[in-house]
Write a structure and sequence with these properties.
Layout (H helix, E strand, L loop, with lengths): L2 H15 L1 H11 L5 H32 L4 H21 L14 H10 L2 H13 L3 H23 L1 H38 L3
Helix pairs in contact: 1-6, 1-7, 2-7, 2-8, 3-5, 3-6, 3-7, 4-6, 4-8, 6-7
InterPro entries: Multi_antbiot-R_MarC
GO cellular component, one term: plasma membrane
Pfam families: MarC
């Protein structure tokens, strides 16, 4: 396994998926009293997101190529999309009220668009496109599994995450991660422009 690739992928995925923020949203959307329902929703959302990230990450690039879209164009457009996401993370307020209704929220909004949204799916394609050798590809795959597993665990422990982080801590963390994501987005754009020979 390529450690440098793994660490780069884990950092990028952690920033865009934000497992801590996802756990806080999960805590608000799923009633706290039903442990079995909470486990089912967390497991289903994590499984769907993991499959989407791996499948789209591996086959999204070839699909784009068939549509006549180069990987460098995808890097630029993906970077712009990630930058827009980062801008919203930094500047916009996000509020979710506590739900008491027992319903299936695993696909929407937990899996799509929160965990496997446009930003993370684009990032998965970009990460796999950079991984030319098998060790690098395995590193990206392991990074996806690591982040989704961490998200699953934090969802199950979301009651305690909320107590530790609180609203202020979540605001600080989300905006800090937004700054890192913005820098990552600019790097993708710069790589795409360089790849096109400008």
């Amino acid at each position: 396994m390529d450690i440098a690739t793994y660490l780069n992928a884990v950092t990028a995925l952690f920033v865009i998926i934000d497992p801590v923020g996802a756990a806080l949203v999960f805590h608000a959307l799923v009633p706290a009293g039903d442990a079995r329902h909470r486990f089912a929703m967390a497991a289903k959302a994590t499984l769907i997101s993991t499959l989407l990230l791996i499948i789209f990450g591996n086959y999204g690039g070839p699909l784009m190529s068939r549509l006549g879209i180069s990987i460098d164009a995808l890097r630029i457009s993906g970077g712009l999309l990630l930058f827009f996401t980062a801008f919203n993370m930094i500047t916009k307020d996000f509020e979710v009220s506590q739900s008491t209704e027992r319903k299936d929220v695993s696909v929407f909004p937990l899996s799509i668009p929160m965990l496997a949204g446009p930003g993370s799916l684009t990032l998965a394609i970009l990460l796999f496109s950079r991984a030319d050798a098998l060790p690098a590809q395995l590193s990206v795959l392991t990074a996806i599994l690591s982040i989704t597993l961490l998200t699953f665990v934090l969802m199950l422990l979301s009651k305690y995450v909320k107590l530790v982080i609180g609203r202020t801590g979540d605001e600080i963390l989300r905006r800090f991660l937004g700054v890192i994501l913005a820098a990552l987005a600019i790097q993708f754009i710069a790589d795409g422009i360089a790849g096109m020979g400008f």
